[in-house]
Input
Amino acid sequence: MLRRPLLRLPRTGCRPVVAVVGDAAFAMGGMEIHTAAELGLAVVWIVLNNSGNAMVANLQNLLFGRESGALYTHPLDAAAIARGLGARAALVRTLGEFASALDDALHSNAPFVIDARVDGDEMPWSLRGRAEALRSGG
Ligand SMILES: Cc1ncc(C[n+]2csc(CCOP(=O)(O)OP(=O)(O)O)c2C)c(N)n1
Ligand SMILES: [Mg+2]
Output
């Protein structure tokens, strides 16, 4: 039986790694949190949780005037998933809660997931340009 991790990464005195991901991206790659917990790595995930593939839904709305199948009926409880994988976690809904959770996360020296609930209707300005380009065949 393997008793020690093959990979020895420094654990103390290091700056944490911070990943900013969407909730659908988290659904695709989030199991890596378990590896981080096993190895005791100070990785912070900030999950921008807007109940689905909002970029896809927003682009569908811009191009076709309706959305189809891109948003979740059951939003992910990213904080609960993270705890289940061995990480610490906080679910936040306001900027104040986010700032406090980020401070905790950066000082935890352990895997930490911030499940930040955000509005799916907020979209990057660049998406409108992308829709225009697609409409004109670009
Ligand atoms: C492995 C993989 N599959 C599919 C895509 C296509 N894709 C690009 S953005 C996106 C939606 C991602 O949703 P989320 O991570 O929740 O971000 P949001 O748009 O909601 O902010 C998808 C499916 C991709 N980039 N990579
Ligand atoms: Mg999303």
Q: What stands out?
A: Strands lie at 17-22, 43-49, 88-92, 112-117. The mean pLDDT is 90.
